[in-house]
Amino acid sequence: MERYIGSMNTEERxxxxxxxxxxxxxxxxxxxxxxxxxxxxxxxxxFEYTDIKLDTDxxxxxxxIPRRLNILANLGFLExxxxxxxxxxxxxxxxxxxxxxxxKVEELELExxxxxxxxxxxxxxxxxxxxxxxxxxxEQVLKxxxxxxxxxxxxxxxxxxxxxxxxxxxxSFYCLGSTTTKAGLAEILYQQRPRILLADEIDKFETKDIAxxxxxxxxxxxxxxxxxxxxxxxxxxxxxxxxxxxxGMPVELLSRFRVLYLPEYTKExxxxxxxxxxxxxxxxxxxxxxxxxxxxWGISKNIREAVRTGKICQTTEEVDSDIKLLRKYGGD
Length: 332
Known about the structure:
45% helix, globular
């Protein structure tokens, strides 16, 4: 992100930040709260990244806070008040003015600007064996707005790989139907404004949580009442979803997707796909990747399991130990 022009006032700079990186406003708001909590303490050096509290369980967002605070400081919204080998402290200069403008920007409820075209790397989907027609469709869909696809199939199918590949793209956000609540999804969409929403296990979203997905898929509008105040945003999000089955899913939700049913991988296809993912994405040596793929087929037929094993095992002995643990504690 380029440094903002020095001649811009606080309001102009915050509006520009909101338009380009709307998720930074929630962080800046939390910075103001952290500033207020500490400024009355004697010998206060400023707040640290651990003082920033965001209403999200997303691990990636939490881990990115130090980097984002540094960016806000480079943009002039924060100042580094103390720095040592072990810590960096910040303060919010002109905090009263910043807070006044933050309230004003939130009331405007402007829509952020999005790049209509998503950068598609040449090796996107290279780990997926076959399905050239579906790959071509996905690349077409990535060039338009609000086109939604649901992949349906068993864990031993390519739907897992398609989501893993899409998760590499800038502007994507992954959520799991079995753990995402309505409030959590609304907050994710409102703060992150994802260009691509990856809704895994969409068949496991609770009924009360479906309304947000229905509205997002149909109109792009996300609205909710929080702290007694109604807020709304319109997004140009593409939804790529996956489910083991469409049985029991609301007809009105299914109607908003192009539904593609993928057959289960044969053993040969599974081994090839797992090897490609392990070698190209996890950077596992080819011979060990083949060994892991074969073991994963024998225990779960789930490519995610092969990936998890590849991340923590560097020898065949370690793979055997990990598989033994899965057989003992992994359940049916």
